Structure formats: C-alpha cells, structure tokens
Amino acid sequence: MREVKVSREIVEEQLRIAEEYREKSPKGRKFFMECYGCQQNEADSERMSGICELMGYEKTDDKTEASLIIINTCAIREHAELKALSNTGQLKRLKEKDPSLLIGICGCMAQEKHRRDQLKKSYPYVDFLLGTDMIHMLPSVVERAAYGKKRVWAVNDLPHNELGVIAEGLPVKRESKVSGWVSVMYGCNNFCSYCIVPYVRGRERSRNEEDVIREFRELLSSGVKDITLLGQNVNSYRSENGVDFPTLLEHITALEGDFRVRFMTSHPKDCTKRLAETFKNEKMANHFHLPFQSGSSRILELMNRRYDKEKYLEKAMMLKETIPNVALTTDIIIGFPTETEKDFLDTVDVVKKVGFDMSYIFLYSPRVGTRAAVMDDQIPHEVKVERFKYLSNIQNEIARANNERLVGTVQRVLVDGVENGIYTGRSGQNKIVNFSGEGISVGDFCNVEVTEAQAYSILGKKIN
Questions:
Q1: Measured on CA atoms in the order 167, 143, 24, 95, is the torsion positive or negative?
Q2: If we measure between CA atoms, which residue out of 231, 254, 160, 142 comes closest to residue 200?
Q3: Is the peptide bond before 265 cis (omega within 30 degrees of 0)?
Q4: 2/358 Cα distance (integer angstroms)
Q5: Do 295 and 192 belong together in one domain?
Q6: pLDDT tens for each residue of 363-372
Q7: Is the domain of 301 the same as that of 278?
C-alpha cells in the first residue's frame, strides 16, 4: 500500500483555518453530531467534535438549535445506511427554516460511490460530504461550505489499495470521563467476501507506537481508567519500526497507574498464544472478542475467512485455557448465500461448544461491490429471521448460565453511572453490573459481590 502520513504542516494549516473561522464567525453557534456503527466511528466522531469546538461551535443534543449538523455514517449493513438516509431526509425541514444551517455527511457510507451519487442527486440540502480519511480537512470543508456558498465533496475516490491516511495532532472531545478509545490502526487487508470495510476504509495502516502511547497517556492523565484499543483488525497492528500488537500491549500495560485495557476487533488468524499470554498482566481486562461469523467450514471458505471450524475452536479453547475466567464474545452472520440447514447447525454447534458470554448475531446484508452480493442462492429473509430467533434463544440460555456461575463471586467493577441510588459499571469481563453501596463516585474501581444473575447483566452489592 502507498503508506500516507498527513504532514504536520497540513494538520497545522487546518488548525489555523479552524481558529480563523472561529474568530470571523458569529458567536454562540452549536453543532450536532449523530454517529452510527462501530467504535471506530465513535472515535472518529470524537475527533470531529474536537475540531468543531476549535472552530467555535458548542455541542448540543438538540439538532433544532444547531447551526452545523454532521452525520457520521456506517456501511456495514443496509439497515444502518437506510436509517442514516432517513434521518438525513428529516433535516430538509430544518434547512428550509434556516438556510444558513450546514449539513454534512461523513463516514463509510459517504465513501460508497452509489450512495455518494444518491446524496448528491436526491439530497440537495446536504452541504458537504467527508470521506473516511478526510477528517483532518473538516475545517477547510466547513469554511468552504459556509462562505463559498456551494456544496463541497471531500471524498478520496482512490482505489482501495491507495485509500487511507493517518493524521496526528487533531483535537479530541471525549464523550466519557471513565472510558475512552485509542485507534491504533485503520483499514483491513482481509477482504472477507461479505464485507465493505476494505473498500471504504482502505488497506491496513498502523500508527506509530509513540503516537499511540502519547494518546494513551493523555487519557490516563484526564482520569480515564478503561481504555479500548481500536482497529478493524486490531491484532494485525505493526508499527513502522516493527512493533507488533502483543509488544504494544506489553508497553502499554507497563505504564504507571490503575487502569484497564481492552481491544477490538480481532481476527482469528492473528490470535496467537503470545497474544493470549499478555493477559497475565492484571491491567488487561479478561474479555476477548473473537468473531467467527459461521461454524460451517464450507461457508467460511466462501467468506474468505482463512480458517475452518476446527481451527476456530482450537483458538477459542486456547484462549479459555490461557486466560483465567476469560469472557469470550463473538460476531455471527446468519443467512450467508447458500447457507443450508446443516451449515446453520454447524454455527449452533460452535456457539454451544465455546459457550460465548455474548454473541452479536446479524442477518446477512448484501453490500454493493462485494463478492457475496452477486452470489447465487441468496437466503430468503424469513429463513434468516427464523434461524436468528433459534440461535438467539440458545445464546440467551448460555449467557444466563455463565452469569449464574458468578453468583457469590467478587468482581472488580469500574463505576460509570448512578441513578436512584443504584450504581452501574462494567467488570473486567465487560459485563454490566448494577449494584448498591455507599461512598462511591463515578470513575472509582470497587469490589462487588454478585447476588443475582440475568442473561446480560448481573446484580450485586459493594463490599470492602
């Protein structure tokens, strides 16, 4: 891939444009940010929010009082795209009331040519489009849209093997004072036959280790204690000087402080014993997200996943043996083209054998431009729904049984909220914990004895 690092000069120029825009624009302007999709999109939204604040905007949760609205879109499934388009359509009335309102669409959907053409033609009140690797250009894009009185299309229409840049030094507005994201890499090289990510995010590219460590330290200094490292295939991380992902984790967990580290999403092909052994450090959360997508080796080959059922099971059991009390979660696609009842039952078999704490189960959604979208034997929607319900019921039973085994144990919980005297937090296994107690503040770690289990949360009380 043509590795591209945005020069410091370009970033500084954009920051200067942002400050000049703030000085010459009316005061009291507000922006509204709407985000769909994965944690990477959430991290991107936090950067765009930081840029908007530098430009003089104040964040609002009420789009009717905003003078700038940005919709950060997802393209992983059609439902997410249609929802984003529907919500964009509802902005037409706001634009009619206030022609000076700026509306921007960014993220993965903006990177798809057929959606981009649709937005240009059918949504004339959208003022700008921003591609996935153009976030650092937001100041000049907004300025041109505001003062140039014309629509701006800032989308990199390069082939996937040339798409993608890394821009350092952008401001960030963190949404939480307890947990945070740090992107360590972007893009994907796997080209699973159902997935649009490599086409809208580009090929894999990793940040320099020192930049990752610097951002991690900044989060720690702000009081954040639960930090998730992000990447479309995070355990493929490799910096320019050869630092791989396990080594990065070792360096991060060596930092001083009381904090917890997570990461997602992992590809089974890069799930190694050495990676699992990094969890011996108590700062690593004992939660591992390992998508398997299908339990059928035949379907996995059609998906281009580069492992079969047996190899996945070997990886999952290795994690269970190596990481004490690990909570395993996964992603599953139901109704991939040609999926038979036998293929589906292979998926059910994997769920039962591994005993996942949670499975994110999705109905297969054809993505324009992917190989799977033009395959014969697309599965009827009603068959997908029936299989989804069957597998969801099994997963719910497994999740409840896993949580019931925690009753009577003590879990270390990071508190992230309180309402009506009941505290909420997450354990190292990433389980939602609701508990009672006194003398607790949001952002504290505390020990909680589990008294009751539900399928996807546990109840307890604080103990000393």
A1: negative
A2: 160
A3: yes
A4: 38
A5: no
A6: 999 999 999 9
A7: no
